[in-house]
Amino acid sequence: MYGDPATIRKILTELGDTWAVVGLSNNRDRAAYGVARTLQRFGKRVVPVHPKAEAVHGEQGYASLAEIPFEVDVVDVFVNSHLAGAVADEAVAVGADAVWFQLGVIDEAAYARTREAGLEMVMDRCPAIEIPAL
After folding, report:
1. Any residues with CB less than 8 A from the CB of 53 and at least 6 apart, and which?
2. Model-level pTM?
3. Integer CA distances (angstroms), 43 to 5, 7, 66, 79, 105, in order
4. Confidence band (pLDDT; 50, 70, 90) for 3?
5. Is 68 in a helix, a strand, or coil?
6. Are 61 and 55 in contact (CB under 8 A)?
7. Contact in structure between 10 and 120 (CB atoms under 8 Å)
8. Do the beta carbons of residue 87 and residue 64 sit within 8 Å?
9. Average pLDDT value for residue range 3-20
10. How far is CA 130 from CA 42, 44, 60, 73, 134, in A?
11. Are strands 45-49 and 120-122 parallel, antiparallel or unpaired?
12. What residues does 62 pair with on adjacent strands?
């Protein structure tokens, strides 16, 4: 299992409230849009990361994690599994505390690398499903 209850709770309640959401755009039909709104309702600052660098939900967007000029606590990943490993590596490089791969986003090698680098990680889960249960 790639997200035991203790790790999920730690990421959602202890590691900080700034979440970079990779793949977040203004497309209301995409899951990232609704998940980001839910995270905001639970007190998280949501930072959009998307090639278009669009502002979403009142927050300035950035084209990459490296462009964000402040610390990010959690990197929430809404990209295809074959791209997710590179995002996890970027999260390590920018000093994030945790990486969260959304439902259907699975890369076991990236999971292992990220954990070996000392970050918390959850894979194939959704924080918008988990956070209301806390």
Report:
1. 61, 62, 63, 67
2. 0.96
3. 20, 19, 24, 24, 24
4. confident
5. coil
6. yes
7. yes
8. no
9. 94
10. 11, 14, 26, 17, 7
11. unpaired
12. 49
Per-residue confidence (pLDDT) for residue 2, from 0 to 100:
80
Nearest to 23 by CA among 41, 44, 46: 46
Give the C-alpha distances (Å, rounded to integers) separating 52 from 37, 48, 55, 62, 101. 19, 10, 9, 8, 21
Intra-chain end-to-end CA distance of the chain, in Å: 19
Supply the pLDDT for residue 133. Answer: 86
Give CA–CA dist 96/93, Å, rounded. Answer: 8
Confidence of residue 102 (pLDDT cuts 50, 70, 90): very high
The C-alpha atoms of residue 106 and residue 104 are separated, in whole angstroms, by 6
Quick one: pLDDT at residue 1? 59
* Count of positions (residues) in the chain: 134
User: DSSP 3-state assignment of 100?
Assistant: strand
Q: Which amino acid is at 107?
A: D
**pLDDT, tens digit (0-9, with 9 covering 90-100), for 27-68:** 999 999 999 999 999 999 999 999 999 999 999 999 999 999
What are 22's two structure tokens?
Answer: 């990779």
Q: Please, what's the largest Cα pairwise distance for the chain?
A: 35
